[in-house]
Structure formats: C-alpha cells, structure tokens
Amino acid sequence: MILSQKLENFVLHCGEMGSRWGFNRTIGQMVGLLVISEQPLSANEIAEALRISRGNVSMGIKELQSWQLVKVIHVPGDRKEYYAPNGSIWDLANKVFEERRKREIDPTLTLLRDSIIEPAESNEEAYAQEQMQQIHDLLETVTKWSAELQRLSPEQLQTLMKLGSSVSKVIDLKDKLLKK
Amino acid sequence: MILSQKLENFVLHCGEMGSRWGFNRTIGQMVGLLVISEQPLSANEIAEALRISRGNVSMGIKELQSWQLVKVIHVPGDRKEYYAPNGSIWDLANKVFEERRKREIDPTLTLLRDSIIEPAESNEEAYAQEQMQQIHDLLETVTKWSAELQRLSPEQLQTLMKLGSSVSKVIDLKDKLLKK
DNA sequence: ATTGACTTTCAAATTTTACTGAAACTTTAA
DNA sequence: TTAAAGTTTCAGTAAAATTTGAAAGTCAAT
C-alpha cells in the first residue's frame, strides 16, 4: 500500500485538518485514506500506508467508530477485519456535525442554563448573566435550526441552499401571504 | 479581580471549549472573561483573574486580535490598554465562523481543486478524484450558502431560523411559484 | 537623557497529547 | 488444546503545544 504523491498530499492535508474537526492528525489521515480508497482496508494496510504503528491504528479505528465514521467489513474466508467509510461524504460530514454538537454545544447549553437559572448575587453577575443568556439563545437557535435542516431531504436542502440570499424574498412573500 | 464561583465556572468552561473553536484553553478563557465583564480589562487584570503570566496574556491578546475578537480601549490620562469584546455575541460568533472558514475550508478547497484538475494517473486516482470532487462540491455549496446567509440582516436570519421545519413549506411554495 | 509605567518577545521549562511496541487478549481452525 | 492469525491495551517514550519570566522594547513625562 503505497500512495501516489497526489493521494499522499490529500491524506496529509486531512491530517492537518483532522485536529480542526475534532480528532487528531493521525485520525484525520485515516479518514482521508479510507475515503479515497475504493476497497476497504485492513488495519495493517492502514498502518503501512500512513507509516504508523499497528497499535495506533487500532486506537484510531476505535475513536472513528465512536464517531460512527467507519464500518467494519468481514470478508468470508478471511479473518482480517477491513474498514471503510460509513456512508457517503455527505453522511460523514453530517455525523461529524452531529457528534460535535453533542460533545460541545450540549454541555455548554447545560452549563449556561444552570448558571442563568440561579439569581445573580452581585451587579457583575447580573451583567454576566445577561451575556450568558445571549450565548444561550444563540446556541439554542442554531441547534434547533440545524436539527430542522437535518430533517429535510438532501434534495430539499440543496434547493434551500441554492436559493441563497433570495430566500429572504421567499420569506417576505410568505409574510404577505399570511397577512392576507 | 477575583471571580465568583459561578463566573469562574463559566470562564473555565470557555477554556475547555476554546480548543474546539480554534484557539487554546487560555485564549478561550480570555474570551469568556472579557465577554462577561462589563468593564474593559487591562492585561494585568486578565492575568490576575486567570492566574496566568503577563507574557501569556500578551500573546493571547495578539492572537485574539488576529481573529478580530477584541478591541483595545484607551482611557484618557491612563497609559494602560484596556480590552473588550469586539462586538455583540452574535458578531463574535460570526467572526469565529468567518475566520475558521478562511483558515480551514479555503485551503482545503484550493488543494482539492488542484488535485482534481490534473488527470488521474491510475484507477485508484480516478476513484480518489471522484471522492475529492464530492468533498469539493459539499464544501463549496456550504461556503457559498454561508456567505449568502451572512448577507441577510440578523432579523431576516432570525426569521429564517425560527421558520424551523416549515422551511420546507417555503421551499414547496417557491417551486409552485416557479411553475406558474 | 533618564526614569517609570507599561508592553512585547522568545528561549527554556513545563504540561499535554499522541505514538510505539511488546505483552495480553480473542477467535478460528486443525 | 494448541497454534496461528489476528486485535487490543497500556506503560513508557517521544513530540507538540503551551506557559513562564527575564530581558528588551516603547513611550510619555520630567
């Protein structure tokens, strides 16, 4: 398993980006590799392609499974496990989004709610709480909205995105219709 | 500058989240602190409140300025510089989004474009390129859409988000209008 | 041109995070 | 029940990121 220059570049780039998406470099590379590979890969092939230890691959796979980003494939008559991306690019992106929401936004919302609910004990706290309320409202709106968007079919979502800013015209229109 | 338990919790939490949003723990704490503080704070006050070194604050401020998240305030007759969040919560969130797009999505799009443009040199590369094309299209759609959304006024955006799932009705509506 | 109040820089120390590889574990087949 | 082929775990090590603090820099007032 040796990658051409072009493919290696892509995989390395995924590594750099990996940390931004919520995992570490190696795991980013693993996702990149699996995505561009037509055949499922065994742990050894991954280790070889990325020049990392077998143990590291094992830990990476575990992490990717907790994100639901890879699926395991068993080939009859072969005891090795093979790994492949769990769904289309679109599915993967969705899962990353969803998972990050769970890990980052939700705990923050909880903390903010708890903080806001108890009465301010000073002027400073009163101001701080107003700000926290703002953050809370923002996060909640965004969370709800992204949940709604996920309910739309990919086609509807495409339509909506392609509407772009002219979506505002449609909204205005809707307002007018409602008033009638 | 000593924080009440509640405020300290919030600041620490911002620290944890900081790394998710693209900066490190300390810088996350700094943002949290500035956001909940009604008065602008001097570098020394920040260092004291967060129990970190003066030098660290200086570097953090520099980083936050590169994200355009803080503004400097000069008080007449006082040589110290004071720092405050650069805009509302909404503005800050927007800036983080915008900045991350620049730092993460844009370079990825460039790499993908470059990779896709040159012809595949093998079957593997051909498959890989198809996948890269998918990623490219996804990122481009999302980028364009977020740019469009940023053009809407906050009120329009609020309206849109609050539409929630009935957004699909709006889409249907649009379809019908087009057909006429 | 010196002092004092402040800020910035950056090499070195520290802390955190990731990786390796050998040992332990699991599973299948003979 | 043993061996062989595979996977996982985790203590120790290596690498990366962060932090400190002392020194250098800036600037206004004297």
Automatic annotation (TrEMBL), chains A, B:
It comes from the Bacteria. Gene3D superfamilies: Winged helix-like DNA-binding domain superfamily/Winged helix DNA-binding domain. Residues 33-80 form the HTH marR-type domain. GO terms for molecular function: DNA binding; DNA-binding transcription factor activity. Keywords: DNA-binding, Transcription, Transcription regulation. The keyword Transcription regulation applies. Pfam families: MarR_2. Belongs to the GbsR family. This is HTH-type transcriptional regulator. It comes from Pseudoalteromonas phenolica. The lineage of its organism: Bacteria, Pseudomonadati, Pseudomonadota, Gammaproteobacteria, Alteromonadales.
